[in-house]
């Protein structure tokens, strides 16, 4: 009897070990990725990034797990690209303008080209990358580029015409500050995460940003006026990139899954950028935002003010030995033939 009990215990132990060891081994083999973004955790764009990681885990049957860090909790927005290059983070989402001079040819995306929607701007940004494959992204594995919807002036004081912008301190970044200055306002650079407080405390008089920020970043609580002029409608460019060594270390089948996932997520990103602007506009209308739409004459006047920015881009790229003139013309022609959304 004792012998039988011993055999039984030995068999149970063998079954237990057989059941535990493979699980432990597979847990050790899980690929863990850190994904950083500066977007607030509840913002729809941020939620889409988080869903990317969850979907990757699902499609790889748990072989890849992604830890998502929103609101700059792991790496700040202006350190994200370097963080990806140096391997501090595996995947990074941020704005090109936060690393001024790092992606010179891509600055065409930020120019006031008269975008009609975030979907249109996003598709142009990615089409530009596929067409020209700028070397400025060679130190990362670029997932894709995208861009928010047309940027307009949202202010604490009423703006009914271009001249009303004079003297207003408008939140901007390294690239959009040129648009602000050309429009006649005074650019003041600051991170997005500090902007709401700056507006509330009177350190800024407004922002030059898309409609979605009225709701998504709560700027509609402090900026009660919006001046819509497509003559200054720029679209800030965003990147989603992975550390190159980390990418090269992934099994081929995992890389293929990520590439396929990125194709799908790019389309989701384009549609979402359009939707959040529509949602922001609806929010603004419901909360009593005063929205002034510039007439054709005002838009023509604003385009004239913006023209030197386009010329300066071409000149600057030429000095760097880059095909700025070709890129600008290509993007302008692309937009002429593209659908608004």
Summary keywords:
alpha/beta; D-Maltodextrin-Binding Protein, domain 2; globular
Computed over alpha carbons, the radius of gyration is: 24 Å
The count of strands amounts to 11
What is the element string, with H for helices and E for strands?
Answer: HEHEHEHEEEHEHEHEEHHEHH
* Overall CATH class of the largest domain: Alpha Beta
Average pLDDT, all residues? 92
Considering the protein shown, what is the CATH homologous superfamily of the largest domain?
Answer: Bacterial extracellular solute-binding protein, family 7
Query: What is the straight-line distance between the termini?
Result: 79 Å
Biggest sheet: strands side by side, in what order?
7-6-8-5-9-11
* Most strands sheet: 6 strands, mixed
Q: What is the CATH architecture assignment of the largest domain? A: 3-Layer(aba) Sandwich
Which percent range describes the beta-strand content?
15-25%
- Stretches with pLDDT under 50, minimum 5 residues: 1-25
Overall 3D shape = globular
Number of domains: 2
How many helical elements? Answer: 11
Question: What's the structural blueprint in terms of helices and strands?
Answer:
Elements lengths: L1 H27 L2 E7 L6 H16 L4 E6 L10 H7 L4 E5 L22 H15 L7 E8 L4 E4 L13 E4 L3 H8 L2 E4 L2 H9 L5 E4 L3 H4 L8 E4 L8 E7 H6 L2 H35 L3 E4 L2 H24 L4 H14 L4
Parallel strand pairs: 1-2, 1-3, 6-7, 6-8, 9-11
Antiparallel strand pairs: 3-10, 4-10, 5-8, 5-9
């Amino acid at each position: 009897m004792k012998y039988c009990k011993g055999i039984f215990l030995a068999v149970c132990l063998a079954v237990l070990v057989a059941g535990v060891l493979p699980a432990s081994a597979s847990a050790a083999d899980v690929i863990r990725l850190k994904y950083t973004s500066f977007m607030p955790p509840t913002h729809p764009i941020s939620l889409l990034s988080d869903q990317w990681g969850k979907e990757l885990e699902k499609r790889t049957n748990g072989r890849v797990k992604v830890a998502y860090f929103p609101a700059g909790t792991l790496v700040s927005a202006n350190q994200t690209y370097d963080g990806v290059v140096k391997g501090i983070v595996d995947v990074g989402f941020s704005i090109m303008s936060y690393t001024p001079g790092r992606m010179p040819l891509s600055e065409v995306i930020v120019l006031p080209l008269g975008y009609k929607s975030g979907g249109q701007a996003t598709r142009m940004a990615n089409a530009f990358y596929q067409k020209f494959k700028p070397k400025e992204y060679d130190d990362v594995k670029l997932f894709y580029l995208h861009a928010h919807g047309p940027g307009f002036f949202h202010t604490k004081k009423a703006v009914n015409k271009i001249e009303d912008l004079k003297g207003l301190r408008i939140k901007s970044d390294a690239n959009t500050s040129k648009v602000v200055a050309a429009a006649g306002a005074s650019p003041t650079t600051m991170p997005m995460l500090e902007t709401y407080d700056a507006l509330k405390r009177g350190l800024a008089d407004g922002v030059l940003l898309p409609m979605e920020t009225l709701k998504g970043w709560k700027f509609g609580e402090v900026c009660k006026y919006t001046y819509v002029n497509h003559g200054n409608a720029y679209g800030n460019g965003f990147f989603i990139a992975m550390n190159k060594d980390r990418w090269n270390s992934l099994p081929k089948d995992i890389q293929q899954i990520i590439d396929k996932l990125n194709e799908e997520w790019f389309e989701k990103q384009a549609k979402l950028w359009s939707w959040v602007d529509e949602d922001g506009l609806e929010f603004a209308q419901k909360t009593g935002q005063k929205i002034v739409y510039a007439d054709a004459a005002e838009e023509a006047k604003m385009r004239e003010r913006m023209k030197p920015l386009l010329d300066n881009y071409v000149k600057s790229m030429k000095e760097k030995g880059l095909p700025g003139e070709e890129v600008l013309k290509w993007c302008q022609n692309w937009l002429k033939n593209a659908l608004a959304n």
